[in-house]
Amino acid sequence: MSQFSRRQFLVTALASAAVASCTRQNQSRSNISTTASRIVALEWVYVENLLALEIQPIGVADIRGYKTFVDIEPKLAESVVDVGTRQEPSLEAIAQLQPDLIIGTQLRHETIYDALSAIAPTQLFNPYPDSNALSQFDEMQQTFRAIAQRVDRREAGETVLRQMQDTFQAASDRLRSSKQNTRSFILGQFNEATPQIRLFTDDAMAVQILNQIGLKNAWKGQLDRFGFNTVGIEAFPKIEQASFLYIAGENNTHLKQLQENPVWKGLKFVQEQRLYPIGAETWVFGGPKSAQLLVEKVTATLTEK
């Protein structure tokens, strides 16, 4: 592939995509028979899953973003190639790597499925299922098992999931003994792009993870596909009895401005010092390793204060 010009590549890919389109309905996205070893991951959660299974992908979408927001071991190798953004990955860059498997999400990559399939067998997962059919937390585990099977690491995958559950149990015991499991919580996330705050709803994987260790979510906003509502300061007085767990950078501009707001200062969780930072690099849309890290950070901040 490396000797192809951009034009030659696009012509070849589009021609192959036409063939792939005819057979697409017969191809399973979660049960491709051969074991994959050269894998391109177009979403960070699947990068994390591969690393948890001790497999380095050959290509990843938005490596800089992954390294900024996903703080798990093992780390991504320096040899891994960046293949563009998660929303618009480079088909040419992917093809030049000659992968034997591409993993992406239905949300971002459904429209380019045929072009991706023309390059290599492609699996698309849906981390945001209908909550009436499958929770985000259950989907995460189901997809992790599917990837483990695809790369012939099923036993290793079950070990990772057991370690996650062991972490949950230890955290639950620690919170119970410290009596920190009796108060409800809200989970918020700040970013620099907007002064508004994400509050996570009951259908969010992060909330479902914290439920596993005995914590109860006080935010009862409208359920959302992505598991959060975007709110302003006016949303907080009705939930001020809860403890506020939050994700933010140390120098987040909007958090600093909020701390000077009279309404914020008057909230009970502020006055009673029930504010619990869990770090900007806490990724709440990840796999088992991110779930463990979330629980470890929440448990530490609740019991050490």
UniProtKB/TrEMBL annotation:
PROSITE patterns from the UniProt entry:
FE_B12_PBP, PROKAR_LIPOPROTEIN, TAT
Q: Which UniProt keywords apply?
A: Signal, Transport
Location(s), subcellular: Cell envelope
Has keyword Transport? Answer: yes
* One cellular-component annotation, GO: outer membrane-bounded periplasmic space
Q: Which residues cross the membrane?
A: none
Q: What is one Gene Ontology biological process annotated in the Swiss-Prot or TrEMBL record? A: iron coordination entity transport
Q: Would you say which domain of life the source belongs to?
A: Bacteria
What range(s) does the Fe/B12 periplasmic-binding domain occupy? 38-305
Q: Which Gene3D superfamilies match?
A: Nitrogenase molybdenum iron protein domain
Q: Which family does it belong to?
A: Belongs to the bacterial solute-binding protein 8 family.
The name this protein carries in UniProt is: Iron-siderophore ABC transporter substrate-binding protein
What is the source species?
Leptolyngbya boryana CZ1
